[in-house]
Amino acid sequence: MTITYIYRFGFIIFFLCLVLALFIGGSQPEAVGLFEPPVDKLVHFFYFATFTFLIAMSDIMPLKYAAMLTVALGAVDELHQMVLPGRSPGFDDWLADSFGAVIVVCIFSIVRKQQIARAI
């Protein structure tokens, strides 16, 4: 097993841990009002940007699918909040999640194009 596979596996494990933290930690009563607006949108943005970054770094799927998975996770998170006491889903939260995913995909696309251009 090469070091590349170990890194990829690590990124996947870290991603799965963050997903568990999102759904388990977000279900706790202490999560209600943990971040006040507008800071909560930044937290959404960076948390879901991190999801996309980890999936992209693991190289288990194309970037567009990594973004789609992250956007879907954001939607599931918001729907999950419908059943949690003191929590409510927000379209603006989902937009912040999605924007985080899209920005990471754009950055990765630019970097990959530059790498390809240098290789030629």
Describe the 3D structure.
- By secondary structure, the chain is mainly α.
- The protein has one domain.
- It contains 4 helices and no strands.
- α2 crosses α3.
- It is elongated, with a radius of gyration of 16 Å.
- The model has no long low-confidence stretch (mean pLDDT 94).
Topology (SSEs and partners):
Elements lengths: L2 H23 L13 H20 L4 H18 L10 H29 L1
Helix pairs in contact: 1-2, 2-3, 2-4, 3-4
Helix content: over 70%
What oligomeric assembly is this protein in?
Answer: single chain
- The span between the termini is 29 Å
Per DSSP, what share of the residues sits in E-state strands of 2 or more residues?
A: under 5%
Largest sheet: none
Overall outline: elongated
Low-confidence stretches: none
Element order, helices and strands?
HHHH
Could you report the average pLDDT, rounded to the nearest whole number? 94
Overall structural domain count = 1
Total number of helices: 4
Number of strands: 0
Please tell me how large the radius of gyration is: 16 Å
Structural class given helices, strands, pairing? Answer: mainly alpha
